[in-house]
């Protein structure tokens, strides 16, 4: 992964607290993002909302929760670096999925400038710790031994045995109590190779959440976009458990893609871990600029697909609809594509403004168009329409079709202005505006979209009495 910063990899056997340490470091030293609107070329507001809180990894007692590499940019003491969380190292995996996890760990080790080797003070040295230690020493890279879960002086005294692993002075941490994290950060930045100062770096990204039901091909699409096996892909549902952030650029515009866990309907979620991963996916949609909803064209549109689409629209997010596995549709002819489009209009009528891409993560068909389409949609999402143009349209619309009377009273719409972008939001002033019907509001929205575009983005209209 190209981040532009030195990379610090967190490594260790399962359940020693790697993700908890990742969360503490990300929360203690989040990177900030400057305004990037000048790079987009659309008419936008001059300021941008502050970046949301740093991304957190899902933490659970179940071993193996973390599978894919999970990155976060960090600033500490005027230095910038990238922290990467990894799955638990299992030197002799007997499962194909776990073997893929180990490949992700190896990739993180290969790109890392510094390694944090995390062990558990409560369990003491386990045989697997010694095996991991030997593997890490073979990398010939700087290694900090982090003895985690030192929640009391008793554990620190008992943890002296970790000197036997043969690394320099261990760092004692307690993620539960937030002890030792600042000292660890000081050690990290003092040991990193020389790099750019924070003030010299250009960062910021359009954040895209890749969402959908399990096994629709979200991770495969991302791997195809990146040209590498960045995300673990497996036929079994639930392979992706956390929301994983990946940075890349398209046409010199930075993007941050968030691969999320498959979102099943609430009644189908049987355990606490899956509930946590779905909540992370929901959080990713809320924090995104654009949601890419992935559907499997070999299956019928399910109620859960409609629920996710409704959630995206309700939260005012721009979106792109990706219809994946198009290569698996046999005997395609000139009627196949129109038939699919017509069926989608019936099944998802409330999001007919969303652009649709028929893709194949397996062959790469149209996958590269996802970012190009997302960029076009983002420009629409950020567009601000001048007030005179809006009022000219309003006069035409109310002249052609005045608001219908409700209980004998006709609303009078006098003036319209755009008050917000992301999503485009309009305020209409007038008399008896509380009597504007939903059908007339839809008439206004459809004509605003027809006149000014807003392809891929929901439109909000509010009314105020004047």
Describe it:
31% of the residues lie in helices and 20% in strands. The protein is of the alpha/beta class and 466 residues long. It has helices at residues 18-28, 96-111, 127-137, 153-158, 181-191, 218-226, 272-287, 303-314, 336-347, 369-381, 387-400, 438-452; strands at residues 7-11, 70-76, 79-85, 114-120, 143-148, 171-172, 206-211, 244-250, 253-259, 290-296, 318-324, 356-358, 412-420, 425-431, 460-465. The radius of gyration is 26 Å and the shape is elongated. It has 3 domains: 7-200, P-loop containing nucleotide triphosphate hydrolases (Rossmann fold); 206-379, 3-Layer(aba) Sandwich (Rossmann fold), CATH 3.40.50; 387-465, K homology (KH) domain (GMP Synthetase, Chain A, domain 3). Strands 2-3-1-4-5-6 form a 6-stranded mixed beta sheet, sandwiched between helices. It has a 6-stranded mixed beta sheet with strand order 8-9-7-10-11-12, sandwiched between helices. A 3-stranded mixed beta sheet has the order 13-14-15. Helix 8 links the parallel strand 10 and strand 11 (318-324). Helix 11 (387-400) crosses helix 12 (438-452).
How would the blueprint of this fold be written?
Blueprint lengths: L6 E5 L6 H11 L41 E7 L2 E7 L10 H16 L2 E7 L6 H11 L5 E6 L4 H6 L12 E2 L8 H11 L14 E6 L6 H9 L17 E7 L2 E7 L12 H16 L2 E7 L6 H12 L3 E7 L11 H12 L8 E3 L10 H13 L5 H14 L11 E9 L4 E7 L6 H15 L7 E6 L1
Parallel strand pairs: 1-3, 1-4, 4-5, 5-6, 7-9, 7-10, 10-11, 11-12, 14-15
Antiparallel strand pairs: 2-3, 8-9, 13-14
Helix pairs in contact: 11-12
